Amino acid sequence: MTDSAPNHDTADHDVTDEEAIRTVTERIDPEATIDLLRDLVRIRSPYFEEDAITEFVFDWLDSRNLDPERHPVSEPDITDFEGNNVLARLDGTDPDAPTLLLNAHMDTVELVEAWDEDPLSGRVEDGKLYGQGACDMKGGLAGIMVAFDALADADLQGNVLFSAVVDEEGPYGLGANQLLRDGITDDCDAAVVTEPGPVLAQEEIENPALLLGARGRFLYDVSVTGRAAHGSQPEKGVNAVADAGRLAAAFEDLTVGSHGKLGDGSVCPLQIDGGGETLSVPESCRLLVDRHVVVGETEDVVRADAEELIDDLGLESAVEVELREAPAPDVRYGPYVTDPDEPLVGALTAGVEAVTGTDPAIGYFSSVGDFNYFGHRAGLPTVIVGPDGENIHGAGEFVYTDEVVEVARIVAAGCVSLLG
């Protein structure tokens, strides 16, 4: 009889979860959320220039008694950068329950010149909020700010760690890197990053969506050394610029890896820089080549592929291939895939169902970001769930306002499902 008796504890817990999710999502006010987003967008914050927005996020949390702290970020060797992340924590009632990291970045790319209006206007029209960084990713930042605030009064067993970081758009992701360097992520069991998802997914999907992985990235830094000669007698020299051009074309045809979830890798020459003398065969040239990789394409594989390509070309120039200089050898964007059976995925799926009444689409991110550091370097189950928009990094960037509110509620509901 015992085996067939109903489990009243489980049933009561389910009811409690439903009530707790409804309570926490109702605390998220749409108008206040979009007002917050507009305030964030109006703050100019290109990477390495985040002081103003850092103080705004800190003060907003502090005004709600959420005990934020500034987390120093320093990289003295390459960028000479000094800044601060903003961290805050909600402690649950069970010391053995998991800790969930909620992450967003505060910076944007540099303001582009092609805007035909103020790029920091925060203008709202037809359900879209416009501004540089509105979608990437101040919409997601506003989402976790209001979700974290709503969770402060929830009865959670597990812990929530809020992190708003600097320099995601910069070359090294210094804010997220500092979290790992200082052991901030050591006690975390999973991570949610509210980057815009569908617009940068490998395949066409729509929100609500959960992105369960991302490709990684390496940057080839190739030095080509030829031999100078008078430009009227090019046959007496070795043209480094011409050989660099042949290399760039060959890199475009490089065979890359493929993955069942992440799709194919990719290669894209980004920059050729050399020559410049008025009438001399160029003696040297530098070539930068982006390579996005999938699981299995390690640093050793990436290096070996480039060296084989160079050998096969048989160029007259001497060619040396390196990977871009980094603050430390492990500061790389490695690819990762999160198992769909992870508790975090189930909790966010429950959150999507509770908020939207639908199942989430499942996708994978095409490029790289802080989530690679959490999913690959820190080894955390990491899910991207963020509001969609268009024109990311360009003029006319916007985010859908209803999706900002929806994502905030999904994240809050997912936290309750996982930690409550």
Automatic annotation (TrEMBL):
Q: Which Pfam families match?
A: M20_dimer, Peptidase_M20
Provide a Gene Ontology MF annotation, just one.
Answer: hydrolase activity
**Keyword GTP-binding assigned:** no
Cofactor(s) required for function per UniProt: Zn(2+)
Tell me the InterPro entries matching this sequence.
Answer: ArgE/DapE_CS (IPR001261), Bact_exopeptidase_dim_dom (IPR036264), Peptidase_M20 (IPR002933), Peptidase_M20_dimer (IPR011650), Peptidase_M20A (IPR050072)
For this protein, the record's PROSITE patterns field holds: ARGE_DAPE_CPG2_1, ARGE_DAPE_CPG2_2
* Span of domain Peptidase M20 dimerisation: 213-315
Keywords (alphabetical) are: Hydrolase, Metal-binding, Zinc
Q: Which Gene3D superfamilies match?
A: 3.30.70.360, Zn peptidases (3.40.630.10)
Q: What is this protein called?
A: Peptidase M20
